[in-house]
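Morning F.,

Quick status update on the modeling queue. The single chain you submitted on Monday has been processed. Sequence for confirmation:
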Amino acid sequence: MEFTATYNTDIGIRKSTNQDSLAMRIIDTPDGEVAFAIVCDGMGGLAKGELASKEVIDAFCKWFDEDFCAQVVDGTFTALRLRDDWNGIIQNENRLLGIYGSDHNIMLGTTISALLIYRDEFYIVHVGDSRVYELANNVRILTKDQTFVAREVAAGRMTPQEAKIDPRRSVLLQCVGASATVVPDFLKGKAQKGAVYFVCSDGFRHQISDEEIMEKLGPDSTPTVEELKYGCVYLTELVKNRKETDNITVAAIKTI
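Structure tokens below.
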């Protein structure tokens, strides 16, 4: 499996800093190409959200560049080891950010959604309300929002329509750095050839529909990396025009 990939990030129309952070990697291996994308959304209501998101990004990039690449070369990669590695990074970053916050009398935190595509499988780790999508025959949200409103919808106490306009829609159940304990979601699945996978912060998707996402980022609309980039930028500008106030970030990978 091969990949094309691109990203777009924008400070948005209101905030003075971009507290989103992202990273992407596409590398060649004896097993074929590997794709990795990660988006972290620093908590907008907390101090130094951009520091929290960057620190987690850096930790995952160090893992990818050193540990993962070594596992590929040694043939020691397994899904269980990946889960242990990712959980270890998150627990360590939660501890370190907690210590930093305590030392500086502040609270800081970040979401995390990371996607690895290797040997025709996708692997995801997720904390918070950033998302990972799969666009193939339809729009499929691979992650579950860890938010107050998502919990209320799941329990039948709120409708999806009510959740979209509820003022508590951004209240997280957990995040890295500001939670006493963090329990990440881990997912694994078969990567579809000719599909588009993307990771985004919540600012990217609040103001647009699944139909608009498919129209601009779906497989039929993105035959080249230029069209993939155009779709990311177009949708970013669209949500800004619709008065989205958050930072906006999307990292997209198309399987070939």
